[in-house]
Amino acid sequence: MNRAEHWDQFRGVIRTRKGGWQIGKGVTSYGHSLLGELMPGHPFFSVLILNVTGTLPEPRLARWFEAFFIAMSWPDPRMWCNFIGALGGSVRATPIASIAAGVCASDSAIYGPGTIPKSCEFIATATADYALGVSVGDIVEREQKLRGVPAVPGYYRPFAKGDERVGPIHTYATKVLAFGEGAHLQMAQRVHDYLEREYQERMNLAGYITAFLLDQGMTPAQIHVVSSFCTNAGIHACYAEQANDRPPGSILPLRCDDIDYIGVAPRTVDR
Amino acid sequence: MSIKDTNVTPRGDVFAERLKTRITAESPSDTNPYLTARRYTHGYELEELSTAVAFDQMIFLLLRGDLPNAAERRLFNALLVSFANPGIRDPAVRAAVTAAASKTEISSLLPISATIAGGSVGGGAEVSNAMRFIRRHRRRDPLHLAAEVCSVDFEQVADRLVAPGFGSTFGAIDPMAKRMAVSLANRCDEHPVFTWCERFVEGLTEQDASLGWRWWGVCAAALLELGFHPRTGVGIYQVAVSAGALAHGLEWRVRAYTDLPFVPEDDYILEGEEREPR
Fold first, then answer.
1. CATH of A112-226, one of 1.10.230, 1.25.40, 1.10.8, 1.10.287
2. Mean pLDDT computed over A149-176
3. What pLDDT, on the 0 to 100 scale, is given for residue B274?
């Protein structure tokens, strides 16, 4: 094949497996009518999962995702992504721009949905290796150490050890939605037990949700995409308060002398 | 201990009580501590900077802590100019154009284009990744390294990206990137990074006639020549591209949305699923 042929086949043409809008006829996602079938008969999260994965999930998985997003919806502007939404509100940036900025901020290596790829990679590899006979201790101890503690993706969070969201969402998943514990979640529990015993570190929500969703057959890439705006409701809250209920500039204003300058002394440009 | 019973304890992180910075010093006005009487950037007072330096020097000062010397300025300015307008086909510029023609808030044009300009293939993250690649391997023989990276088997669907910043572009060697590498190298008194990269590119082309510099690799080499850290690459690329993206966005903000091509039904090809709504 001439190398340019690859691009020529997409020039002026969109090829998609997703669906789309036929003007005057309707909108489809993987052959499902958006307005005739999905809108009246399915929750939002079912459509989100369908749009990403191509499969309509069983209803309880959509309910589980709703619970997960609620668990991530902290209306507290001290959370970094929420603070950015609040700053947007305080300068009267538009809600869409501000909330998008907050969501971008949660694309982080230490909190929020940005942690999902590494967490998926860890638990998938750990589960496979455990099945081959590698011990939990070896699996944990081979991770890079941070201040002497294995920095295991999915088992560290800023501010606190442990995660108050894990218990409630696990109870909801098992007791209300009747999900079982698959191989990844069982592995996640083993790692949790080892880290708690040896280092007093515990599973965080990213560790839980990635193990749970891998057990549901989702791929790491699908989990990352579907979860990408999971922090948004907290950002909405913090934007709305500053934009609608407070005068401009009211979120943590700084005086000149609130800043410690540690740079070079005043100097002049050498002309 | 079950995950259901997870207890939560403070980590005991000690947080700073105040912000600190090496970049900006501000002295307060006598009457209002929130207002600035004087602002200094790495020691230089704002009013003096505004009369004594150009914008490229200001960016360099902000990022490096010192004003560039004459040689550094020559290369840095050439770099910013070279990358300021990737043209309307570039995804970042195209994003600004698409948003502008569809009457998006003008204040969102730059964040939209800068986000797309941050991509890891054909965007600023490729610049940073290329900087890391060059730094990691610069002590190695470039011809051996070229043979090594080309020996990796992979399924070739589109471009062959043998290393960040190096490979094919639209299936071939990018002629502008090749010329730009020479042009920017010629702006330097000494150019050890470009010299190493040119040897690496020679090795790549020997292995496969479609492989050479990629646009983002050229940017990476220039930034390393100037002594920038790889983490700054993506941002400097985004800053440079933003000018072209903004200009094209503003051009399109006053046009009708019908000036933007819309793929007609016949060219919108649904693969693998029923075309009619169920």
1. 1.10.230
2. 94
3. 52
